[in-house]
Amino acid sequence: xxxxxxxxxxxxxxxxxxxxxxxxxxxxxxxxxxxxxxxxxxxxxxxxxxxxxxxxxxxxxxxxxxxxxxxxxxxxxxxxxxxxxxxxxxxxxxxxxxxxxxxxxxxxxxxxxxxxxxxxxxxxxxxxxxxxxxxxxxxxxxxxxxxxxxxxxxxxxxxxxxxxxxxxxxxxxxxxxxxxxxxxxxxxxxxxxxxxxxxxxxxxxxxxxxxxxxxxxxxxxxxxxxxxxxxxxxxxxxxxxxxxxxxxxx
Amino acid sequence: xxxxxxxxxxxxxxxxxxxxxxxxxxxxxxxxxxxxxxxxxxxxxxxxxxxxxxxxxxxxxxxxxxxxxxxxxxxxxxxxxxxxxx
Lengths: 250, 86
Hints:
The complex is a heterodimer.
Chain A: H1 2-56, H2 59-85, H3 87-97, H4 126-133, H5 156-162
Helix pairs in contact in A: 2-3
Chain B: H1 2-50, H2 56-81
């Protein structure tokens, strides 16, 4: 009896161990398969990342060069603008075109962030600003080619009016009177003797269409207007213009 | 004899479920990594394909150089024809 019980206990032990081993084999093999899939996927990842690294290697240098070129262009344009318009007007012009941009200032001019920006855009239109910035040779500055600066921040509207070649903004004591027109005007537009005289008789015009075969040698064609030309008279009002052949007057 | 039977019961009731539970957890974790790695591989391929246009940056660089040179020429001309600020 004891031997059978011992054998049964050993058999159960063997079965339990066998089950554990089977579980270990099953799950470990499945894990190995999954890890192999992961390895294959990571190989693809490494290949893709390698391509990314290879393709993006020169990007840093190229972008740095592009930024340097663009920075040089920006510094050039900012320097030119400040040189030609002055710091305050340059900032005002930039702020007029791009509201709020003057707060950032110019890159090459650190003190531009502390400069008081005039409100150019509220006084001048874009076209006026463009013309004004063209310099004293611009048409808008023709009235005062030797005058002061084009824009006065304190009296901007008056300065804007002063840019135009017109005398009314100077408030003169008297302006030239308007011209008198009409027949009673002291100065006639066309000063001619025949104006106001009796109308002359208008000259008549006659065209002879009959051909003149016995006429002087022409081109031979009898059609009117084919060989001759209309010839005017000596200027008298009663003279009749006749069609001639070959330039011969009738 | 009784201890042997107790050991058998512990082996079947405790050890075997614990082993199975732990191995199943490892297997599930390994299987969950596979789709993630596949997505990463797909993204890496797409990123590599997107960078095919990076070579055009050389053309952009030349264009920028030429543009800045033209701007510099215009700026030099404007510097000559316009008066400086007073």
